Amino acid sequence: MAVYAIGDLQGCYDPFRHLLDTIHFDPDADTLWLTGDLVNRGPKSLKTLRFVNSLGDSVVSVLGNHDLYLLALAAGAIPVSKRFGSLKRILNAPDLDELISWLLHRPLAHYDASLNTLLVHAATYPTWNVKKTLARAAEVEKVLRGKDAPTLFRKLRGNAPLRWSPDLKGYSRLRFIINCLTRARMLTKNLSLNFTHSGSPWTARKNLIPWYDFEKPAWSGTRIVFGHWSALGLIALSDVISLDTGCVWGRQLTAVRLDKPIPWVYQVEGQH
Fold this sequence. Notes:
Layout: E1 3-6, H1 13-22, E2 31-34, H2 45-54, E3 59-61, H3 65-74, H4 88-91, H5 96-104, E4 109-112, E5 117-120, H6 130-144, H7 149-155, H8 170-183, E6 186-188, E7 193-194, E8 208-210, E9 223-226, E10 235-236, E11 240-242, E12 252-257, E13 264-269
Parallel strand pairs: 1-2, 2-3, 5-9, 9-11
Antiparallel strand pairs: 1-12, 4-5, 6-7, 6-8, 10-11, 12-13
Helix pairs in contact: 3-5, 3-7, 6-8
């Protein structure tokens, strides 16, 4: 019984199936963790979403920012534009309601105590331990699944507030949580989110720090698995595993086996 984590799919169905064959994934015995961004940009978002849904309880997938775009489009909260052209087939699919319901019930963060591992799409905040990360995620999940979801989607635009405070309230609070969990890469030294740099962390300005690289973060001692940052690429350390290796850009799709003392890494060629 194995536990694998795979990076951002973004509609890359064929490399995904190839990777599952490579690791001999058995949905009756194994568990698959997905870092989110199941859809958008790639050529087969609908087929990818249907297949992941069909895997049932063998899959744990967190919500990524592109998954949230699909939910917002389905709720009529944002207009369909060229940016979301690859999602039109999903929006016109006869099983749209089933797929959207399934996606709405994915978490923003997942923790497995037996593996001492936290799964998020992009990041968690240096002052949040695992318990706080899950609690903040649950605040958003409750709204996403309720009658105020369309309003939340309309309020998502924008980067502010950039810094966390327990005193944040309403949609500003929810926007920060979502931006942190699904969009963050770099932070300033005073713990403000920074969205100006999406490239490699080694080319960033000196005052910017990768979110996972702060000294003594509250989540220290817990392994974090995340995606979202294709310019960062693969990191497979004892406490940090980065899995977005640019499949949709023609690089690789990556899986890591989590239930081994030293993570086993598998890769296949990305979308062409």
